[in-house]
């Protein structure tokens, strides 16, 4: 009888400890898991080299504001996605997280993904139309 009592106490202690630890876990359904946690691939910088005028007109590029800078090298983080059309210059953008570097220049259309940190290496003074989205 004492041995049976010992087994019951041990089993009860184990069950009690298990229930306490299990109550601290949260099980998420797939519909509430953020897509950023489910995806293992990162968006790359997309370059459309020398797009035609129809492409640019459909995007409304020439109504976007402009920005420019001289030859320089600086860090940048994209809080939002950005598309831009380069009016002049040449740039190499190198992401800090291992994504592919890209080089682009006058006449190219480039889209940068939100959340990406990178280094801009402006080798020829750049002027661009840009749009955050």
UniProtKB/TrEMBL annotation:
Keywords: Signal. It comes from the Eukaryota. The keyword Hydrolase does not apply. It comes from Fistulifera solaris (Oleaginous diatom). Residues 1-24 form the signal peptide. Residues 57-130 form the (S)-ureidoglycine aminohydrolase cupin domain. InterPro entries: RmlC-like_jellyroll (IPR014710), RmlC_Cupin_sf (IPR011051), UGlyAH_Cupin_dom (IPR008579). This is (S)-ureidoglycine aminohydrolase cupin domain-containing protein. The lineage of its organism: Eukaryota, Sar, Stramenopiles, Ochrophyta, Bacillariophyta. The keyword Signal applies.
